[in-house]
Amino acid sequence: MCGIVGYIGKREAYPILIQGLHRLEYRGYDSSGVAMISTKGELNIYKSKGKVDALEHYASDKDLSGTIGIAHTRWATHGEPNDTNAHPHYSQSKRLALVHNGTIENYTVLKVALLKHGYTFVSETDTEVVVQLIEYIRDTNHCSLFDAVKEATRQIVGAYAIAVIDKENPDQIIVARQSSPLVIGVGEDEYFIASDATPIIEYTNKVVYLNDGEVAIVNRGEPLHVFDAQGESKDCIDITELRMSIEELEKGGYPHFMLKEIFEQPKTLADCISGRISSDGKRVVLSGVVMNKEKFLNAHRIIIAACGTSWHAGLIGKHLIEDFCRIPVEVEYASEFRYRNPVVTEHDILIALSQSGETADTLAALELAKKKGAFVFGICNVIGSSIPRATHSGCYIHVGPEIGVASTKAFTGQVTVLAMLALLVGQMKGTVSDETLHRVASDLRRVPKLIKDIFKMDSQIQDLAKIFTYAHNFLYLGRGYNYPAALEGALKLKEISYIHAEGYPAAEMKHGTIALIDNEMPTVVIAIKDNVYEKTVSNIQQVKARGGRVLAIVTEGDEIVSKMADYIIEVPEIAECLTPLLTSIPLQLLAYYIAVIKGRNVDQPRNLAKSVTVE
Ligand code: G6P
Predict the structure, then answer these.
(1) Which of the residues are catalytic?
(2) Which of 40, 214, 277, 360 has the smallest number of Cβ neighbours within 10 A?
(3) Which residues contact residue 439 at a Cβ distance below 8 angstroms, ignoring those fewer than 6 apart?
């Protein structure tokens, strides 16, 4: 949800800023811009509607000199995507330029006050108010840019990560953060600023994550100065060493990140499991759980708060935890939970489930539960992101950077971690037998290999995609563990192909949705051999009886559904609770190939952003 990049050092800033914007483009891609202080001492801003390529094209004949600059890729919240609303924004005198990720809630009040002081605004954004406010404070208080930013952050309400530069001081960038992420990369006499570490990693693996309320002075060639929320200078700044590699951020020969990430799953799940399941399959260890054993043993209830794909993984987590731990689990849309006055006690555990670790609603749900005394546990992918830093404990899914906006490998990573957590807590509580633990844990270890087997059907899935691309509506049905997999399959298709798709519990279909079935609307049914297999078979018959076309995901060797369905895709047999890890793979591929045939921008679908750091 908007990406920020900044650079100050000895190198030319522009290539670093542009490359950084490309890396962050998954966060927003409706417009972008750069601001640089040129070698002539001018503060140049170049902005363009559309993708970063459009900006590069626009800027190609401009003065791109300078060793200090800030840049931004936007996902519009206030004001339509156009050149004017794109960031960076100038202050009134054009002395300052600022980029912002987040939303300023009281911007109208501030704008009215600034208008009274003679300030004029060219854009419709909340961001322009911030840069004008900083200039106003600096000019009226005759203070430094740092003091003006500090005072402005006291006056603004909302979420922000900002970076500001001043034409009169080409040796300084001031940055601040509240509820939106900001990372500073520390190089040799140079600093890199970004919304996450991906633009930084090719230059340095040493980063400083800014905490909420912190403001930093990034001076050329000087040590970093970070001031905490109380305005105190921090003597000791935590420098984190990243282990991410640049290859992980590249497409590696695939046409899209999404396809690369789908095909990476055997490896990412092996990484996720690595060191957590013993080689004999008899022990599961997640240190974040083990260290808080008592909390899990005494939990009256577990609440899983999440959004989007993570919410679907959370639904599978509910089945797993209730099955193995006999602890009641509620899965909440974080955005609803946070505004509901929910009943939460100190006997509850809230699991914040989030790929990015930055989703604003999930973060707020976590803070609310924490305030009410719950133990909060994070399951995230992005190391050092806001959610892991706000929780009491947690564990990472370790699937590497996910760049494609449609989540794939993070989903299977989340389900894998939830399965391990359920087994571990179940074992600690004595609610899961050694035999079951051994069977399921051993099957988890087989998942990477089984996913590779599913990939052998890639060309068959491509053919199916050709057959089904005509459809305007799709129905996805599943039951039990695979109901969330059906929801996720439908979401994948919607997100990237823009075909309307609805996920439904198979049996619930007859209470309304069945009215939609005709030969125009394909039904994708997950009909694997589980405890409701026969029931699902009769749901398929109901669809067929109404002239519906059925594509079924079945267990290898199935002879019943394969005779009924129009098309089938087989997945290998595995413990029932792990089947979503397999059934979701062909659904990811199906959505991908349909979207490609329809000519969609798979990695950056319209209106979506990878991490939603606004409400
Ligand atoms: C956005 C993304 C989804 C993601 C959701 C939750 O909507 O486009 O792919 O599932 O946010 O994100 P999180 O990072 O919290 O898992």
Answers:
(1) 2, 610
(2) 40
(3) 575
Assign domain 458-597 one CATH number from 3.40.50.10490, 1.10.10.10, 3.40.50.1360, 3.40.50.720. 3.40.50.10490
Domains 3-248 and 251-453 fall in the same CATH topology: no
Closest CA to 403 of 293, 562, 259: 259
CA-proximal residue: ligand 1, atom 15 (nearest): 354
Q: Which of 356, 415, 417, 495 to mutate to test the pocket of ligand 1 (most atoms within 8 A of CB)?
A: 356
The Cα–Cα gap between 467 and 459 comes to 13
Residue of the CA atom closest to atom 7 of ligand 1? 308
Q: Could you tell me the distance, in angstroms and rounded to a whole number, from the CA of residue 610 to the centre of ligand 1?
A: 6
Q: How many CB atoms lie within 10 A of CB 115?
A: 12
Q: Is the CB of 355 under 6 A from ligand 1?
A: yes
Q: How far away, in angstroms, is 355 Cα from ligand 1 center? A: 7
Q: Is the CB of residue 309 below 6 angstroms from any atom belonging to ligand 1? A: yes
* DSSP three-state, residue 462: helix
- CB of 596 within 6 A of ligand 1: the answer is no
Centroid of ligand 1 to alpha carbon of 476 (angstroms): 20
Give residue limits of the domains in the chain: 3-248, 251-453, 458-597
**Residue 257, C-beta contacts closer than 8 angstroms, at least 6 positions apart:** 26, 251, 403, 404, 603
d(CA 207, ligand 1 centre) in Å: 24
Quick one: which of 206, 204, 247, 248 has its CA closest to 401? 248
Residue 252: predicted pLDDT = 82
Report the distance separating Cα 128 and Cα 111, nearest Å: 9
- The first and second tokens of residue 227, run together, are 């001031």
SS3 of residue 305 by DSSP: strand
Q: For ligand 1, is residue 385 a contact (CB within 6 Å)?
A: no
* CA pair distance 169, 162, nearest whole angstrom: 17
Mutate to test the pocket of ligand 1, among 407, 493, 495, 608 (most ligand atoms within 8 A of CB): 407
CB 272 within 8 A of CB 417: yes
**pLDDT tens digits, residue range 224-283?**
999 998 989 998 888 999 877 777 777 888 999 999 999 999 999 999 999 999 888 899
User: pTM score, two decimals?
Assistant: 0.82
Q: How far apart are CA 557 and CA 555, in angstroms?
A: 6
Residue 612 Cβ contacting ligand 1 at under 6 Å: yes
The pLDDT tens digits for 567-576 are 999 999 999 9
Strand residue runs (E) in 40-157: 43-49, 68-74, 89-90, 96-104
- Nearest atom, ligand 1, residue 406 CA: 9
Overall fold of domain 251-453: Rossmann fold (3.40.50)
Q: From the CA of 133, how far away is ligand 1's center (Å)?
A: 32
The reply to whether ligand 1 has any atom less than 6 angstroms from the CB of 44 is no
In Å, the largest CA–CA distance within the chain is 81
Residue 88 contacts residue 47 (beta carbons within 8 Å): yes
Any idea which fold 3-248 has? Glutamine Phosphoribosylpyrophosphate, subunit 1, domain 1 (3.60.20)
pLDDT band at 220 (very low <50, low <70, confident <90, very high): very high
